[in-house]
Write a structure and sequence with these properties.
By secondary structure, this protein is mainly β. The chain contains 3 helices and 24 strands. The chain is globular.
């Protein structure tokens, strides 16, 4: 009996290790499993949030050059439509940068402030953003999300780093925080995250734009930058918990702002980053070297096409692959593990009569 128990334990441990090794060798793919359509003459829809209980989608879109926030259910019905005000007491700035579900209502970020709105999109609080205006701003992004800190739901967003440094100052990069936490009750902004010493942005060059892609899961923030090949995980306080090299098969790195003529190649760029159940899903353009670009045939195929790679703990799980051309770009993953993406209308022969959002699933090959 004394021999049998350790032997059973050894067999169990070996079996678990073997199962884990097999799981780590699995190859994955993204499969289009469903879609929803909704009416309206909208352009460039972008899904920025899903409701944690109802699964309703928050969609930012343009119509006649103006921004709208749409709440769309999974049957394609528009439950609410909110025309973003660029001025007046309910406005938070000229451009609609981002929005998300927040507590019993919504949070919306403009270029001047972050507003808290009730379910009827009536503003209940306006918090002026005290950070410097970034040199480059982005509208209709997922740059505003929620995070739980000290047992309280707060807002986590990307705008600009703290401090009065310019992109010419080394201190700008040494003290760079990619995100900021907003305590809504205290109206307090706190720097969140940092750059690792080996970061591409700490190598002595000047950068006009450092843009993060991020998502919050279980009080951890998974983050990568569009022109770097390192991914980060930060805890609720903004401390680096771990990081990994992104295992691209090919990625032409940015060289920041060159002092002489622009380079002849094309930079690689991460277009979207989604983390789900230990898997990292990367949508990216690998870029072209100067020689590859010079060898391109006029009007011939462009080898710098969008790719998808799935990795785990810094290891690629299979070769990169392409999505159907009608899928525009990956937006987010919902609580059930489905990935949502808008339709690429430029791949269609005719203008569509309705707006289409695609639902994709991660599956093993």
């Amino acid at each position: 009996m004394r021999i049998l128990v350790p032997l059973c334990l050894l067999i169990f441990l070996v079996a678990c290790e073997s199962t884990q090794e097999e799981a780590d060798k699995l190859e994955y793919e993204l499969v289009l499993v469903d879609s929803i359509q909704f009416d309206g003459d909208y352009e460039m829809p972008s899904i920025v949030a899903t409701h944690p209980q109802t699964d309703e989608l928050m969609v930012l879109a343009y119509q006649g050059g103006e921004s709208f926030i749409l709440i769309v259910d999974t049957n394609g019905s528009i439950k609410q439509e909110f025309k973003y005000p660029t001025e007046g007491p309910s406005s938070v700035g000229e451009g609609l940068m981002s929005a998300t579900y927040f507590r019993d209502g919504y949070a919306i970020m403009g270029r001047a402030a972050i507003g808290i709105y009730n379910k009827q999109f009536e503003i209940t609080k306006r918090i002026a953003i005290t950070l410097a205006m970034p040199m480059v701003t982005f509208n209709h992004t997922r740059h505003l999300q929620t995070i739980e800190k000290n047992g309280k739901e707060q807002l986590l967003f990307h705008f600009s780093p703290e401090g009065n440094y310019t992109i010419d100052d080394p201190e700008f990069y040494q003290n760079y925080n990619p995100l900021t936490i907003l305590d809504v009750e205290e109206e307090h902004f706190q720097a969140y995250g940092s750059l690792h010493e080996a970061s591409l942005y700490l190598q002595g060059s000047k950068w006009l734009m450092i843009r993060p892609l991020f998502s919050v899961k279980n009080q951890e923030t998974h983050l990568a930058f569009i022109s770097d090949t390192v991914s980060y995980v930060f805890d609720e306080m903004g401390n680096e918990a771990r990081r990994a090299k992104i295992p691209f098969d090919k990625f032409v790195h940015h060289v920041a702002i060159p002092e002489d003529a622009p380079p002849k190649g094309t930079y690689g760029r991460i277009m979207s980053y989604i983390h789900h159940e230990g898997l990292d899903i990367w949508e990216y353009l690998p870029g072209l070297s100067a020689s590859e670009k010079s060898n391109m045939v006029e009007n011939g195929p462009n080898p710098n096409t969008k790719r998808i790679m799935i990795s785990k703990n810094g290891e690629a799980l299979g070769a990169p692959f392409e999505l159907p051309e009608r899928v525009s770009y990956l937006n987010l993953v919902d609580k059930d593990g489905f990935i949502w993406a808008p339709q690429n209308v430029y791949a269609l022969e005719e203008e569509p009569e309705r707006n289409t959002l695609y639902k994709l699933e991660i599956q093993t090959k």
